[in-house]
Amino acid sequence: MAEHITIREADGTWVVRAGGAVLGESTRALELTEGDYPSVIYFPREDLAMAFLEQTDTVSSCPFKGNATYYSIHTKSVVIEDAGWSYEDPKEAVSAIKDHVAFYPQKAAVERI
């Protein structure tokens, strides 16, 4: 793993909410810490209501994690563009986050319950 990135199991139960909907709840979430950036919680896809998420055309690249694809959140009341991201084929050093989705804190509420 890149020396400045750590991935560990996130203690407890984590929930993600947006647009008045609970998008997921997990006891199997991962916490990724990268340098001085705030930690990010990655939810396993199996623990998310993927029907609320629609993949967009947005893509970004990280030299340490690989290429990220983005998801918009669609609820009855709102569409939140590019609210989450996932590394479909992450670099080997961070392969634990494969099949997981993370969310921007400005666009979705991620909290430990």
Automatic annotation (TrEMBL):
Domain DUF427: 15-105
Stated name of the protein: DUF427 domain-containing protein
Organism whose genome encodes this protein: Celeribacter arenosi
